[in-house]
Amino acid sequence: MSIPLSPRQLAFSLGHAVSFAREDFLSGPSNAAALKLIERWPDWPDKVIVLVGPEGSGKSHLAAIWAEMSGARFLAARALTDADPLRVLATGALVVEDLAPENLDERALFHLLNLAREEGAFMLVTARSTPAGWPAAIRDLTSRLRALLAVKLDAPDDALLRALIVKLAADRQLTIDETLLNYLVTRIERSFAAARVAVAELDAEAMRQKRPITRALASELWREGRA
Fold this sequence. Notes:
The structure is a single chain. About 30% of the residues are buried. The chain has two domains: about 10-150, P-loop containing nucleotide triphosphate hydrolases (Rossmann fold, 3-Layer(aba) Sandwich); about 160-220, Helicase, Ruva Protein, domain 3 (Orthogonal Bundle), CATH 1.10.8. A hairpin with a 5-residue loop joins strand 1 (about 10) and strand 2 (about 15-20). It contains nine helices and seven strands; from the N terminus they run ββαβαβαβαβαβαααα. Mean pLDDT is about 85; it is low at about 1-15. It is elongated, with a radius of gyration of 20 Å. By secondary structure, it is of the alpha/beta class. Helix 6 (about 160-170) packs across helix 8 and helix 7 (about 180-185) packs parallel to helix 9 (about 215-220).
């Protein structure tokens, strides 16, 4: 029998669990504004907030923190078409995840935004780009998107990237020494997604070769100009 995970703990492909609890959120200059806004709820400047950032930047983690505080339900943007707006807004708080212009059901979103306003419900939307710049056939939706308050999550600085790599390794019960950490920070792309991929590849290669995770192993993976 499988045991369902809570929104605070998600299972990934290699079987380990990643905590989405507040105490496990790594804060830094790149996400400070977004974290501050989440933590000041319900004293928000608007009922609908959009978290904008690249894949792996912490949007879902912040959404999980807010859902724990607010009792919000989760709705994948791709499920907007079939969603019952009254039901998904029943708790007065809703997370809409991964909203994007290429899979946008304009009518469904427009109706949901209008109903949220009427009901006084809070909505937290996650997206990879700012909705204000999205084209929309429904003119009133265009104005709604332009009016949404968007908070951006930027690329991590050195300190946050280092902390993230250490945490990702710890999630897999791995230990990364200072030499390896310094090497990774200078070799991988400065992004949350790249850090996750790097740690996952190191873990997989170490298991494949039955070797410890070291700088030597990393240099084999990232040699010949690989980023």
